[in-house]
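---------- Forwarded message ----------

FYI, see the GPN-loop GTPase 3 record below. Original note from H. follows.
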Amino acid sequence: MPRYAQLVMGPAGSGKSTYCSTMVQHSETLNRSVQVVNLDPAAEHFEYPVMADIRELIQVDDVMEDESLRFGPNGGLVFCMEYFANNFDWLEESLGHVEDDYILFDCPGQIELYTHLPVMKQLVEQLQQWEFRVCGVFLVDSQFMVESFKFISGVMAALSAMVSLEIPQVNIMTKMDLLSPKAKKEIEKYLDPDMYSMMEDGSNTIRSKKFKKLTKAICGLIDDYSIVRFLPFDRTDEEGINIVLQHIDFSIQYGEDLEFKEPKEVEEQPANLNYDDIFQDKANS
């Protein structure tokens, strides 16, 4: 029987631990067993019980205090993750082997782990060898994404993780519950973006012709191939959380031996979802 895993990724402060905690609570209401593994050796606290904690293997503070290494925070984290990659047997022992395992891996926020270092790719390959079906869940703070060029930056970060890991990936805008009503209205266009329109809106702020041409090419790549789309995540909205979980379950075919339903309103473009649609669905139900 297959096992299932979410790699919860995203920049520091994007809400990864909050996402894991919310998903654990939501799964309990669905009578589903979901476990969490902390893979951040610099984590200080989190609001969920863990089945395994990388800090039992190695911690950033210990590495930084080692006078023979003399690492700073970022170098210390990279060292910890490379040490972890050389000790996957610790993770295998911690996970055990239970059929239909569904595990959330709360990952560190340093983007270099997903761009030019092989650690996370090695983790994915190891999990697949252990019969896990793995989905990447890339989080971006919605409060950061309310301007077009910041949005493009977030899209490129998500795209770099997709290219590096080569697994199904669901991209999520977190902290929607913290947005003002005006900001919620403004962010609708970023959930189903017209990249060319964004380019035109911001073209007056770009002075360099080369930079304008590069930005247009990036926007065209994203828009023409529908490579990156985002789902909204409001931790106070059970229906919205369930829609996110449906997308992830569908990408890894969770419960494929059961009668499985596709995510709501996404027959052709799974991530093409408007934030107002969620509330409208909730009001009609």
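H. also flagged this: The radius of gyration is 19 Å.
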